[in-house]
Design goal:
single chain; alpha+beta; Nucleoside Triphosphate Pyrophosphohydrolase; 4-stranded mixed beta sheet; 3-stranded antiparallel beta sheet; 3 helices
Length: 164
């Protein structure tokens, strides 16, 4: 069973309330999800193909990420999810945004790395392939290729913030 901390919409942890994966999140409460966009020193971004058995299976995802475990900080969650899903040990990890969803608060990070591009490790049951893509290619990807519009917005925000 996976336990999560509960937050209000102002991103304040609600002490004494524990959420459980798979159970309904009460109205007015949120769990924490961290997403990490990986940018290589050469400017390419890491894309991961979702395992066919998962929701949105076979589609490309521009981030590694998932739900924070109870007691886990956003930064610790981002580092753990990145390591689990890609094998990459985060060097520089910068929080670049927060988005309030229906039942989750998404904390978005940018990881800058100079790892060997062929050193990415796939996580069984989570990912089935990976590839590196330039920013322009990423921005051209359609909704039918890239998992969520939120990810496309995230990438466009980075472009507007001067990431190149």
């Amino acid at each position: 069973m996976e336990y999560w901390d509960a937050y209000n919409s102002a991103f304040e942890k609600q002490d004494g309330i524990v959420l459980i994966r798979g159970e309904t999140v009460p109205e007015g409460l949120y769990h924490l999800v961290c997403d990490v966009l990986v940018r290589h020193a050469d400017g390419d971004y890491l894309l991961m193909r979702r395992d066919a058995r998962k929701h949105f299976g076979g589609m490309w995802e521009a981030t590694a990420g998932g739900s924070a475990l109870r007691g886990e900080s956003p930064l610790d969650c981002a580092r753990r999810e990145l390591r689990e899903e890609t094998g990459i040990e985060a060097g520089e990890l910068v929080e670049v945004g927060r988005v309030l969803g229906e039942t989750a608060i998404y904390v978005e990070f940018l990881c800058r790395t100079d790892c060997a591009k062929d050193s990415v490790v796939l996580q069984e049951g989570e990912t089935s392939a990976y590839r590196w893509a330039g920013r322009d290619e990423l921005l051209r990807m359609s909704r039918s290729e890239l998992v969520t519009e939120r990810m496309q917005g995230f990438i466009k925000e980075l472009q507007g913030a001067g990431e190149s």
